[in-house]
Automatic annotation (TrEMBL), chains A, B:
<dbReference type="InterPro" id="IPR036390">
    <property type="entry name" value="WH_DNA-bd_sf"/>
</dbReference>
<dbReference type="InterPro" id="IPR039422">
    <property type="entry name" value="MarR/SlyA-like"/>
</dbReference>
<feature type="domain" description="HTH marR-type">
    <location>
        <begin position="6"/>
        <end position="138"/>
    </location>
</feature>
<dbReference type="InterPro" id="IPR036388">
    <property type="entry name" value="WH-like_DNA-bd_sf"/>
</dbReference>
<dbReference type="InterPro" id="IPR011991">
    <property type="entry name" value="ArsR-like_HTH"/>
</dbReference>
<dbReference type="InterPro" id="IPR000835">
    <property type="entry name" value="HTH_MarR-typ"/>
</dbReference>
<dbReference type="Pfam" id="PF12802">
    <property type="entry name" value="MarR_2"/>
</dbReference>
<protein>
    <recommendedName>
        <fullName>HTH marR-type domain-containing protein</fullName>
    </recommendedName>
</protein>
Length: 145, 145
DNA sequence: TGCCAGTCCGTGCGCCGCGCACGCTAGTCT
DNA sequence: AGACTAGCGTGCGCGGCGCACGGACTGGCA
């Protein structure tokens, strides 16, 4: 049982990293957003305005990496760097309106792609899979993360 | 539906890449095998003796990367480079006995870890999850590769 | 109030792994 | 035999990462 899941997970990882998953998802969305910067964009949308350090914990990266990716997104007009009113040392990353639109489009596309591949499943099985996946993440073989 | 699966997949990717998954799995197995070289080792075990180019397709990498990783494994005594009896240009990568043992141990550990986290599930649900995962890989939103 | 240890940021630095392209060896076909 | 193809390993440049440094700012304490 754990055997097959392990193998399947490996396969999943491989295919995802090969970027078959994100391929073509950014068409027409500008140069700034790609498979490297997307996690930061998406994390920002999920987590809300925050500092790079905070977001780093969220996306599982060093502060420096987040800062650099954010710079790209900033150059592309998807993210704004603003002062933190509560603390002058801190810098708040915020999605611009265009950033908001962009992440919405990408999520829509990705969800649509997944939806499409799930549409051939028996509905009950698809639902069970989604639930199982969430559960596996929650108390699966990962750290606390 | 696709929405939640998409989000869950992202989370899964993140946690896996953070290496919480493979952490501590290589203890006592020598320096050669780590999270970088393991896919090559495992792919070789799965696919059988073959050339670097062939294995490259299997693990989703360039030939050069596979060749370099194989060199490390070779230095560690886990992989042997031998001539292909059928074609003198080709070079066959083969697991040594120790390589075999190593991959067996790692699989055992990984499977055990997954098994453990699945043990708290209702058995039917766990089984359904395993089946769903395989199915999702087979005709999920990835390319053919 | 003036000061200093502590906190937070962005960036220079070195490292590592990748893919591309080259040189080389070994088969293949006329 | 000689040209051409196929396959290998490695040098090269690129890009992203984490570490650690310098600069900006805060907050507590004299």
């Amino acid at each position: 049982m754990g055997r097959e899941v392990a193998e399947a997970l490996g396969e999943l990882l491989k295919r995802s990293l090969r970027s078959n998953l994100y391929q073509g998802l950014t068409d027409g969305l500008g140069e700034a957003v790609d498979e490297v910067t997307y996690p930061v964009l998406s994390g920002l949308a999920r987590y809300g305005p925050c500092s790079a350090a905070e977001l780093a914990a969220e996306v599982g990266l060093d502060r420096s990496g987040v800062s650099r990716r954010a710079s790209r997104l900033e150059a592309g007009g998807l993210v704004r760097r603003g002062p933190d009113p509560a603390d002058g040392r801190s810098v708040l990353l915020t999605l611009t309106e265009e950033g908001d639109r962009t992440v919405a489009v990408m999520r829509q596309r990705l969800a649509g792609r997944i939806e499409a591949s799930l549409s051939s499943w028996p509905p009950a099985e698809a639902r069970a899979f989604a639930r199982g996946l969430r559960r596996f993440i929650r108390d699966g073989p990962f750290g606390e993360g």
